[in-house]
Amino acid sequence: MHNTHVMIRISAAFSTALVACGGPAAGPVAAPPAEPVAESGAASGPLPQVSQELGSISEDAVDKNFDKLNGKIQACFTAGLSRVEYLGGEMAVFLRIGVEGHVKYDYFRSSTVGDRETEKCVLGVFANADWPKPQGGEAEVRKTFTFDPPGDVRAPTAWNSDKIAAAVGKASDAIAKCKSGESESFKGAAYVVPDGKHGKVQAVGMGTPSKEGADKIDCLLGVVQGLELPSPGSYAAKVSFAL
Predict the structure, then answer these.
(1) Which of 10, 73, 149, 164 gives the lowest tally of CB atoms within 10 Å of its CB?
(2) pLDDT tens digits for range 103-115
(3) Which of 26, 14, 12 is nearest to 134 (CA)?
(4) C-alpha 233, offset from chain centre
(5) What are the strands, taking DSSP E only, across the chain?
(6) Which residues are CB-contacts of 225 (< 8 A; sequence separation ≥ 6)?
């Protein structure tokens, strides 16, 4: 394990969306105009309920929360470096924050870090943290993190996804079974190390296109870990992919 300082960069991109019934929105993100309600007597039966689709959450408060969590995120990556010494990549996280300021669920929309244990550790940091309370409903927060690998470690050889295309093609039935009808791509990355005449997966991780897809990740990771891959030669390789 290296004592290299962990460098994490957080993108400036920020967006929120609230999904709940409630009062008018407040803060930097405005609620859309309410749909017109029919005049009394225009139709029989009860009037339709109008739901608020968007609301607001304090961008500054959320950013400060991410800053406070930076040390714990660094600890996740430091632990990851003990498993994969050249660990690095980008994570695009999605958080659903409830009205009480707690995460209801979270997942990575995409990840090129290539280590599921690190991904789970970071998600756990977010899930166990207190967050600003959204106004009017549940907030959705999106952030992108970039983790720079240690500068004193040789980077793995960069592979194009074509390198594993044949192996992925042979596993297409198993991949389809894992995805269970999910049409969107699961984006991830893997580290491949030499294993005799072939290569084997040292570590792998991925994101999911939806909350429902989070339950399919372990199945897909198992497929990737079992792929018969070409040898990267005398040193490790890293490949990003979409399944």
Answers:
(1) 10
(2) 999 999 999 999 9
(3) 26
(4) 31
(5) 7-10, 89-97, 103-111, 139-148, 157-159, 187-195, 198-206, 229-230, 237-242
(6) 201, 204
Residue 112 and residue 190 in contact, taking contact as beta carbons nearer than 8 Å: no
Residue 230, both tokens: 């070409």
Pairing mode, if any, of strands 139-148 and 198-206? unpaired
Tokens coding 137: 């409903």
The band of 56, judged by pLDDT with boundaries at 50, 70 and 90, is confident
What tokens does 211 get?
Answer: 């909350």
Taking each helix axis as running N to C, give the angle between helix 116-127 and helix 70-81, from 0 to 180 degrees, rounded to the nearest 10. Answer: 160
Model pTM above 0.85:
no
DSSP label at 56? B
How deeply is 167 buried, as exposed, middle or buried, from its count of CB atoms within 10 A (0-12, 13-18, 19+)? middle
Contact by Cβ (8 Å): 208, 105: no
Q: What is the DSSP letter of 155?
A: P
